[in-house]
Write a structure and sequence with these properties.
Elements lengths: L3 H26 L4 E7 L2 E8 L2 E7 L2 H12 L3 E2 L2 E2 L1
Antiparallel strand pairs: 1-2, 2-3, 4-5
C-alpha cells in the first residue's frame, strides 16, 4: 500500500513530467526545436531537443533517421498537445 509520503512524491513527479511535456510542446511550436543524429553501434540515435525537454528515438539507417526527424517536424500533436 502506498504511504502518504509516497503518494505526495508520485503526484509531484507526475506534475513535473506533465509540465515538462507541455513546455517541450510549446517550445516545439515556437520553433525552438533542434535535431541531431548520433551513431550508436550499428544504428543511430535521433534527438529532438528544446530548452525544456527532448525526444529520443532510434533508427537502423541514416535514411530512416532523417525520415524520423521529418515526421517529428510535421507533427500536429506534440506530447499530447496541439498548437
Amino acid at each position: 500500500m502506498e504511504s502518504t509520503a509516497q503518494r505526495t512524491s508520485r503526484i509531484k513527479s507526475d506534475d513535473a513530467s506533465a509540465h515538462s511535456a507541455y513546455a517541450h510542446a510549446q517550445d516545439f511550436y515556437d520553433g525552438l526545436a533542434t535535431y541531431s543524429i548520433e551513431p550508436s553501434g550499428t544504428s543511430f540515435l535521433v534527438y529532438e531537443r528544446t530548452p525544456n525537454g527532448q525526444l529520443c528515438g532510434s533508427a537502423r539507417t541514416l535514411e530512416l533517421a532523417h525520415a524520423k526527424i521529418e515526421a517529428w517536424k510535421n507533427d500536429d500533436l506534440k506530447n499530447g498537445y496541439r498548437k
